[in-house]
Amino acid sequence: MSDTLSGSEKRALKSRAQLLDAVVRIGQAGVTEAVVASLSEALKQHDLVKVRFTGFKEERRTLAPQLAEATHSLLVQQVGNVAVYYRTHEDSAALKS
Question: What are the structural domains, with CATH classification, of the chain?
Answer without folding.
Answer: 7-89 (3.30.110.60)
